[in-house]
Amino acid sequence: MASQNPTVAAAPVATPKKKKDEKISNVRGIRNAFFVIIACAIAAVCIFLFAMGAPGNFEGNDPAGHPLNLAGTVYKGGFIVPILMTLFLTVIVLSIERWIAISSASGKGNTTKFVSDVKADLAMNNIDAAMQRCRDQKGSVAAVIYSTLVKYKEMDANTVLSKEQKLTTLRNEVEEATALEMPALSQNLPIVATLTTLGTLVGLLGTVMGMIKSFQALATSGSPDSTELSTGISEALVNTAFGIATGAFAVISYNFFTNKIDNLTYAIDEIGFSIVATFAATHN
After folding, report:
1. Radius of gyration of the chain from Cα atoms?
2. Which of 22, 83, 98, 164 has the most Cβ atoms closer than 10 angstroms to its Cβ?
């Protein structure tokens, strides 16, 4: 009796999953600035009430009396002061946060030297050495370049696509990798930009309210109340100073970090162009 040899359907061979690309970039930062604003508001109110409003800052240990020092004078600025302090503290905290984030995004060492070294590796067609530099540098520029070099090697081994299609793929990879990195760099900067105007406007509001109090003191019958008059002037001047300080610091911070981000973007554009140009020159 002939033995049956049934044909067994060959099971599909499990293809190992492609190893996920190493994470090169290490951009740190605060994702939700709302909690920063709340914390700054609490700190501002506490400073206003318990430090500036301490009885020892006023004559007769009475907060309603004349201030004896600068803290008491600032306290006389009224309820607008803690609002301005909140804005000012928010600018300071977010500026420190952006400094840490962009410093980590810049990676290790000098970015200009890193770009120069990678371009030298590309000139010698030493892609592996360039990828190793990206692993060592660990910045946003390195992350974009590393991702593009991975795609470079894929296109190098690809025998289906035409040269123009490969070049287009490389350009798209640079753009996509850049689009993934840039939001982490500019995060929270729109809030700082908003505070440049908001701080000045709130300070102006406090100034107007202080002047209204001063004119009300002058309008009273008989001799003007010197306490009311000085309180109104203090409120106007203190709020003006806080508003200007907040707006000025926010403008400086925003422009400084925007310039830092622009420098990183220029570096990415430069090295991305070099990668595409190298591929075009070394492939037919």
Report:
1. 31
2. 98
User: Taking 50 as the threshold, does the pLDDT of residue 99 lie above it?
Assistant: yes
pLDDT tens per residue across span 224-268: 667 677 777 877 888 899 999 999 999 999 999 999 999 999 999
pTM above 0.85, yes or no: no
Q: 192-234: per-residue pLDDT in tens?
A: 999 999 999 999 998 888 888 777 777 765 566 676 777 778 7
- Which of 277, 281, 283, 21 is closest to 156 using CA atoms? 283
Structure tokens given for 115: 């770009």
Q: Are 138 and 108 in contact (CB under 8 A)?
A: yes
Give the pLDDT confidence score for residue 205 in this predicted structure. Answer: 92
